[in-house]
């Protein structure tokens, strides 16, 4: 019953509560994550042919190979909640594979797409917060401009990130894409820009309102978590 490790009161799961409710109900009656996610889009992992890349298979068939574990359950929920975004990520993967084949190592673009898909967050941040995040000015981000967070929160997209947060700890960090549009409008993901991994680290439990301990500003003094900019 691995899905019971999720606390649906956690604020970072709020975007997924509605799509998750019927899925969890079906999981209680069946151990198949693919079946619980519903529809023809999700299939058992065994349907992925040996030797075919996961992303290429999705691009070719429109179906997502799914294992019976928390990681793939969360991936499925992101597909259900943000299908346009997930399709955009997959199309870019598939196009790269079609152009270059499957290499021993992913190139820069596929590395960035994978990093975001696993550990990314999408954020339409107010300018002052975006600038503070880019500078890794944690005091400005979380203390000086704290009131600005009331109007904006990052949306956690990475399913590995969501999986890690089943057991929250301060060091869990998202790779944030500072977006100009909502995640339902992923056209701003452009290959040339993303090949450079244009992401910014954000310790997730530092988000105001997401973790009780950060109500004390001393929470942000831990330099092993809130690391200074690289010299």
TrEMBL record:
Domain of life: Bacteria
InterPro entries: DUF3025
Protein name per UniProt: DUF3025 domain-containing protein
Source organism of this protein record: Piscinibacter aquaticus
């Amino acid at each position: 019953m691995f899905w019971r490790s999720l606390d649906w009161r956690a604020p970072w799961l709020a975007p997924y509560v509605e799509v998750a409710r019927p899925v969890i109900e079906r999981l209680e009656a069946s151990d198949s994550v693919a079946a619980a996610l519903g529809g023809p889009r999700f299939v058992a992992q065994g349907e992925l042919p040996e030797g075919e890349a996961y992303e290429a298979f999705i691009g070719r068939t429109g179906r997502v190979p799914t294992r019976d574990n928390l990681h793939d359950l969360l991936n499925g929920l992101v597909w259900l909640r943000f299908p346009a975004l997930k399709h955009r990520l997959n199309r870019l993967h598939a196009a790269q594979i079609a152009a270059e084949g499957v290499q021993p190592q992913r190139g820069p673009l596929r590395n960035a797409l994978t990093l975001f898909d696993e550990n990314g967050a999408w954020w339409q941040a107010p300018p002052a917060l975006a600038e503070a995040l880019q500078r890794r000015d944690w005091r400005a981000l979380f203390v000086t401009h704290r009131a600005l967070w009331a109007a904006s929160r990052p949306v956690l997209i990475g399913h590995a990130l969501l999986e890690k947060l089943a057991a929250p700890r301060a060091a869990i960090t998202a790779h944030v894409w500072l977006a100009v549009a909502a995640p339902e409008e992923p056209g701003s993901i452009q290959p040339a820009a993303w090949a450079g991994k244009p992401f910014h680290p954000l310790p997730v439990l530092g988000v105001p309102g997401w973790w009780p301990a950060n109500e004390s500003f001393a929470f942000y003094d831990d330099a092993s978590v809130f690391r200074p900019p690289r010299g």
